[in-house]
Amino acid sequence: MDNHRSRPFWEQKALEEMTPGEWESLCDGCGRCCAHKLEDEGTGEIFSTSIACRLLDCHDCRCTDYPNRRYRVPDCLQMTPGLARTAPWLPASCAYRRVAEGRGLAWWHHLVSGDRETVHTAGISARGRMTPEQNVDPEALEDYIVDWTSEVAGDGEQ
User: Fold this and answer.
1) pTM for the full model?
2) In Å, what is the CA distance from 99 to each residue of 45, 80, 85, 93, 124?
3) Are β-strands 131-132 and 46-52 bridged in parallel, bridged antiparallel, or unpaired?
4) Residue 136 has what DSSP assignment?
5) Cα 114 vs. chain centroid, distance in angstroms?
6) DSSP bridge partners of 145
7) What are 112-153's pLDDT values in tens digits?
8) DSSP secondary structure string, 36-58?
């Protein structure tokens, strides 16, 4: 038996070697990266909020117009291997970050569990914890700051 072939693609390939389909399938569907961020102009520090991008379905934690998201929301970031390795605002649970750090995927990830609902039932996703941007006074953004990065990754890891 070829042990290399029995391992899943995320354990065999570098992020840059993945096909577009493999790359996209890594998204765990937590919705946390679709939260608005605030930057402290003095320090450059980035803060996540619980305010959802207008395209995020806050129940499914999926983009409602993924193919056109960067056109409709010009500051939407395209996840890249570089961002996966360096973005301090990515939560520890993020599949892209986990794979970039060599931690593999958590038990609740759909590629492991076989079920896209597991991220929600495990309490990893932003389901029920995000407010659509349309419902927020732009002057109150600081009231919605959260720290997704320090939350437990769902398998005992931070």
Assistant:
1) 0.86
2) 24, 12, 9, 10, 17
3) parallel
4) S
5) 18
6) 49
7) 999 999 999 999 999 999 999 999 998 899 999 998 766 555
8) EEEE-TTT--EEEEEEEPTTEET
Whole-angstrom CA distances from 103 to 1, 11, 18, 107, 158 are 25, 9, 17, 12, 11
**Residue located via tokens 């990065």:** 149
Six token digits for residue 67: 């193919």
- Would you kindly state where each structural domain of the chain is located, as residue ranges? 3-150
Q: Residue 150: its pLDDT value, please?
A: 62
SS3 category, 7: coil
Whole-angstrom Cα distance, residue 153 to residue 91? 8
**CB-CB contact of 4 with 73 (8 Å):** no
What are the DSSP calls for 66-100, one per residue? GGGHHHHSTTPPPP-HHHHHH-TTS-TT-HHHHHH
Q: Which residues pair with 132 in a beta bridge?
A: 52
Matching residue, tokens 């193919």:
67
